[in-house]
Write a structure and sequence with these properties.
The chain has one domain. It is built from five helices and no strands. It has helices spanning 4-31, 35-51, 59-92, 98-125, 131-140. Helix 2 (35-51) runs antiparallel to helix 3 (59-92). It is globular, with a radius of gyration of 19 Å.
């Protein structure tokens, strides 16, 4: 018998991935661009937006963080293009590139870190009466 929590998480994950795959298919059909192009476009938008999300409370820190976000997005785009070329060359030879496979694992791990960071920022951005206590509790654990 399967664990009901595990089964519900798998169902949710499958549903999200189905939606993502349909969205990528629609992107490809509409624009003619590839998944790699979509990934680079989302990186170029996502990093600076994530870094600038604290603007209303800390404007100066947000400017510095957004500058860092733009640089990180450009570096990530460059890396993605390089690894995409390496992966295509390896596939043409019928092989796998170990550096590309390691990069994929790192990207998956970074996805979890960014998700946790986004959840943390979402809690800190709330203007509720206990928002500062939530941030303090999360940082002290």
């Amino acid at each position: 018998m399967r664990n009901p929590i595990s089964a519900s998480c798998k169902f949710f994950d499958d549903a999200v991935m189905y939606g993502v795959n349909k969205a990528v298919y629609a992107w490809n059909w509409t624009t003619g661009y590839t998944k790699e192009d979509l990934s680079n476009a989302l990186n170029l938008v996502g990093y600076p937006l994530l870094c600038s999300s604290v603007f209303y409370k800390y404007p100066l820190a947000s400017v510095a963080a957004t500058s860092f976000g733009v640089l990180a997005a450009l570096a990530t785009r460059s890396m993605n293009l390089d690894y995409g070329d390496r992966e295509r060359q390896a596939i043409d030879k019928g092989m796998l590139d170990p550096k590309v496979e390691m990069h994929k694992k790192n990207c998956k791990a970074n996805g979890y870190v960014l998700t946790f960071g986004d959840m943390f920022l979402a809690i800190c951005r709330t203007n509720g009466p206990n928002s500062q206590e939530y941030c303090a509790v999360w940082l002290n654990q």
